[in-house]
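User: Could you write out the 3D structure of this protein bound to adenosine-5'-triphosphate? I've included everything you need below.
Assistant: Certainly. Input first, then the structure.
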Amino acid sequence: MARITKLDDIVSLCKRRGFIFQSSEIYGGLGSCYDYGPLGVELKNNVKKAWWKSVVQMRDDVVGLDCSILMHPLVWKASGHADKFADLIAECKKCNTRTRVDHLTDHIEEHTEHISIDAVLAKAHDLSNKVCPNCGAVGQFTEPMPFKLMFETQMGANVDDSMTLQLRPETAQGIFVNFRNVLDTTRVKIPFGIAQIGKSFRNEVTTKAFIFRTREFEQAELEFFCEPGTDEKWYEHWKEARFNWYINLGLKKENLRFREHDANELAHYAKACVDIEYKFPFGSGDWQELEGVANRTDYDLRQHQRGMRTLNKWFENNRDLTNIELADEAEDYQCGPLSYFDDEKKRRYIPYVIEPSAGIDRSALAFLVDAYDEEEVRGERRNLLRFHPALAPVKAAIFPLVKRDGMPEIACNVHNELKKYFNCFYDEKGAIGRRYRRQDEAGTPFCVTIDGQTTEDNTVTVRERDSMEQVRVSTGQLLNHLREKLEA
Ligand code: ATP
C-alpha cells in the first residue's frame, strides 16, 4: 500500500486528473476557493448521494430539506453567530500574518461560537515561544483577538429597504427555523430528523489546506429531534452510524477514530460532542476532524423562540440589529411556538437535538487520499484510485480493442446502452494498456473491451480495476453483471 505523504502531491494529483482546480486560476487564483473538475464533480456528487441514501432514503425517521443560503438577520442573532462566531487570532508582528490561536497551541478548538468572546480572551494564552507558520519568527505574536467569520452582503436595490445579510456559516439553522413547517406539513413524530446538504461560507483565517478548509464549502447536516432523556441513546446511535458510513464506503479503519471533546471544549449548551477524525497524511498532527456529532440539547429551538419574540423590537429599530438584545425567554417556553406535543404521553416539550455535521469536501478529500495506491506490475509502476464503486466518478469505461473491423460500432452501442444506468466513458484512442492505466488512475472499477471475439460470439472482456482480472461476459448479460458488482 502506498500513501501520499505531502499535501502538494495531493494538489497536483487532483489537478492532473481533473478532480480539483484552484478557483479563478487564469487570474492567479482566489485564496482558499476551489473548483471541481469533470472527475471531481462526479466524486463529490457521489459522496452527497451516498450520504443522502444512508441518512434520508434508507430511514423512515428522517426527511430532507433544502433551505436558502440567505436568511433573516435575526436567525444569526438567535443562534449566537452574529455576536459570537469568531476565531481567536494573533498577528505576527514581523510579517503581519494572522494565525488561529488554537492552531498555535494544542489541538483544542476555539471557534468561539456560542461562547462569550470575553471568556475566551480571559483564558491565558502563552504565545511567547510560538513560531509563526509563515515567517518562522518566534514569540512575535500580538495579544489574541477575535476575528468574525461570517461573510456579509447587501440585499435590496433601494437605500431605504436594503439590509445587510450574512452568508450562512452552517446549514443547521435553516433546519431549526423550519422545524414548525415540517411538523405541520408532514406526519413525522418524535424521534425524527431533518437533513440537508448545502453550501456554507466562513471567512477562515487559516487557509493553505487545500479543500480541507475553504471559505466556501458544502456541509451535510442532520438535526435529529428526540425526547429529552432519550438523547444519550440517540447520540450513541448516530456516533456509530456515522463512523460506519465512512468504513462502509471504503475508508481504512486504521485511519479513522473518535475524539470525544473534553468538558472544557464543549459549548455551554452542548451535553456532549465527538469528532470523527481521519488521519490525513499532511499537516500538523495528521488527525483532523471530518465530522462532528453533538448533543445540542434544546438550545437552538429555545433560542429561536427568543428570536421570534425579538421581531417587533427589530422592526421598531428600523430593521437594524445594532444594539438590540435578544428578548428574554418566556416563562412557559416549554409550550412555545417551537414546542412539540406528544399525543400519546399528552405532554408538551422542546425536543433535544443530536447533530451529525459532516463536510462533503473534507470527506471527498479523505476518500481520495485513502483510495490512492501505487504498485508494480510486471516491472511497471501502476497508479490507481481504489474507490468504492458507489463513489467512483466513472463506473465503466468502454473500449474497442482497435478502430476497425466493426469494433467501434459495437462499442458505441454498448456505451449507449450502459450510460442509461450509470456514468460511463468511451475511449478508442491509443494502446489498450494505456487506456486501462488511465482508467485505473481515475478510479474506474470496470473496463469493458470489445475485441475480435465479440464479432464472433457476442462476448466482451470485463477487466476489474483492483485485481486486473478479466472475464468474458455476453453482451446480453453485461448490464446485470456490472450492476451486481457495482451495487454489491
Ligand atoms: P474546524 O475546527 O476544522 O474549523 P469546525 O469544528 O468549526 O471545524 P463544524 O462547525 O463542526 O466545524 O462544521 C462541521 C463540519 O463541516 C466539519 O467537521 C467539516 O467537515 C466541515 N467544515 C467546517 N468548516 C469547513 C471549512 N472551512 N472547509 C471545509 N469544510 C469545513
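Residues 109, 111, 170, 202, 204, 213-214, 217, 219, 289-292, 357-359, 361-362 surround adenosine-5'-triphosphate (CB under 6 Å).
User: Perfect, thank you.
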